[in-house]
Amino acid sequence: MFWNEFKIDFDFFPFRTFGTKCAKCTRWICSSDWVRRARDSSTLIEQVYHLACFACDACKRQLSTGEEFALFDQRVLCKTHYQELVDGPSDESDGKEEEDEGKL
Ligand SMILES: [Zn+2]
Ligand SMILES: [Zn+2]
């Protein structure tokens, strides 16, 4: 499925490395901050976010561990809003361009 390309690993851990900026707010991450890491499986670029910054850009909902999301144009999107972005707002059908092929 299309979505699998965008399945991204992420972890939740106390970040110990200095010199990393949050990909969302671009502030430096302190050693005491809790962060999430997200690796884009298509570019293999790893981004680091503050815990509070790791939220869907559309609905502002914080994403939890194991939840599917996508990095799109430097923005974090939940699965729902990512699909809305690529497919356009539509119904729950599988969304392929099958039109009326199956009808008699
Ligand atoms: Zn941040
Ligand atoms: Zn969302």
Briefly summarize what is shown:
The chain has 104 residues and is mostly beta strands. The protein has a single domain (2-87), classed as Cysteine Rich Protein (Ribbon). It has 1 helix and 5 strands, in the order βββββα.
Secondary structure elements and pairings:
Layout: E1 10-14, E2 34-39, E3 46-50, E4 69-72, E5 75-78, H1 79-87
Antiparallel strand pairs: 1-2, 2-3, 4-5
Question: What bound compounds does this protein have?
Answer: zinc ion
Q: Would you count the extended β strands for me? A: 5
Secondary structure: helix percent: under 10%
Q: Mean pLDDT, nearest integer?
A: 74
N→C terminal distance: 28 Å
Class by SSE composition: mainly beta
Which strands sit side by side, in order, in the main sheet? 1-2-3
Number of domains: 1
- Unreliable runs, pLDDT <50, ≥5 residues? 1-7
Fill in the CATH topology. Answer: Cysteine Rich Protein
What is the name of the CATH architecture?
Answer: Ribbon
Could you describe the 3D structure shown?
With 104 residues, this protein is mainly beta. It has a single domain (2-87), classed as Cysteine Rich Protein (Ribbon). It contains one helix and five strands, in the order βββββα. It has one helix spanning 79-87; strands at residues 10-14, 34-39, 46-50, 69-72, 75-78. The chain has a three-stranded antiparallel beta sheet, with no helix packed on it. A two-stranded antiparallel sheet has the order 4-5. Strand 2 (34-39) and strand 3 (46-50) form a beta hairpin. The longest helix has 9 residues, at 79-87. The protein is elongated. Residues 1-7 have low confidence and may be disordered. Bound molecules: zinc ion (2 copies).
